[in-house]
Amino acid sequence: MTEATPRWRVKLKLKPWHRYVGFGLFGVVSFLVLLSLTFPVDAARARLQAEAERTGLVLRMDSISSGLFSMTAHRVRLSRASDTDAVPLLVDQVTVRPTFFPPGLAVRAGLLGGSASASFPKSGQSLRVKLVGVDLSRANLKALVGIDAEGKLDGELALDMPVVRGDPDLSQASGVLRLNGTELVVRGGTLTLPVFGTPTPVDLPRAALGTLDGEIDFEKGAGTVQRLHLKGDDLESLATGTVKLARKPEYVELALGLRVRLEAEFLKRLGMVGAGFNVLPMDSELPGFRDARVSGYLGQPSFAPGR
């Protein structure tokens, strides 16, 4: 009697090309598993921190792990090295992966209830950043800049820049910056403002800022405000003017004209600052608005009455 062939053997009969495909897939899976198990996590952490230090930043993270052609850092803290007792910007999770067209890096962060994504080509000639659904109430803004705020913020930054002596030159960048905010509210905090020429800490009352719609176009480092409109229950503001880019963001030059209208009740809550607002000249075109100028640098702006 002939012994019957077991059913499982019949099912495993493969053609030659099936075996080649199977061996190939096995090799790829084995490579990815071994890569995740043997990825030099400590070396990657040290390299990231060294690159951040080279740009004047301090980078800390709770842990770092590898995935399929990616690397993820958890609970990231970022601050400037020059700041004493600096309060870091907190990011829940950051994932970095390579890009191939064009070659470079792509970054995606879980940030304050929303997300942030950016791309950095190896050539360094372009920068793309996008913010979606960032929740200001989950930010440590009060610890960072003294302002307690809430609301949702979206944004987009797209810049193309030349490379000078091996580094991208932000001062010659061309592109666009767009910002959109909804349900923006300042809940309180303290802000240092130049009052009669003297930097003075000012307690901020609650202010319903409402919506923000802004766009600035850049051409070879020279930025023109296309629109910058803030409108809420307590105030309304429109800005025009120019922004001159610099190699370092804190040295970006401002030359802006502001038209501001404050509601009467909010003006009373401002106290001393409200009294200073009444000194500003009335706008000649928009009834109820007063004019101011913003100049100086982004890191240290100065305010003056409009012309």
Your description of this structure?
With 307 residues, this protein is of the alpha+beta class. It folds into two domains: 39-92, no CATH class; 101-305, no CATH class. It has helices at residues 7-11, 16-38, 41-54, 141-145, 264-270, 272-277; strands at residues 57-67, 70-80, 89-100, 103-111, 114-121, 126-135, 147-160, 163-164, 167-168, 174-195, 198-203, 207-219, 222-231, 235-244, 253-262, 290-297, 300-305. The strands form two sheets. It has a 15-stranded antiparallel β-sheet that branches. Strands 8-9 form a two-stranded antiparallel sheet. A hairpin with a 2-residue loop joins strand 12 and strand 13 (222-231). The radius of gyration is 27 Å and the shape is elongated. The N and C termini lie far apart (110 Å). The relative contact order is 0.06. The model has no long low-confidence stretch (mean pLDDT 78).
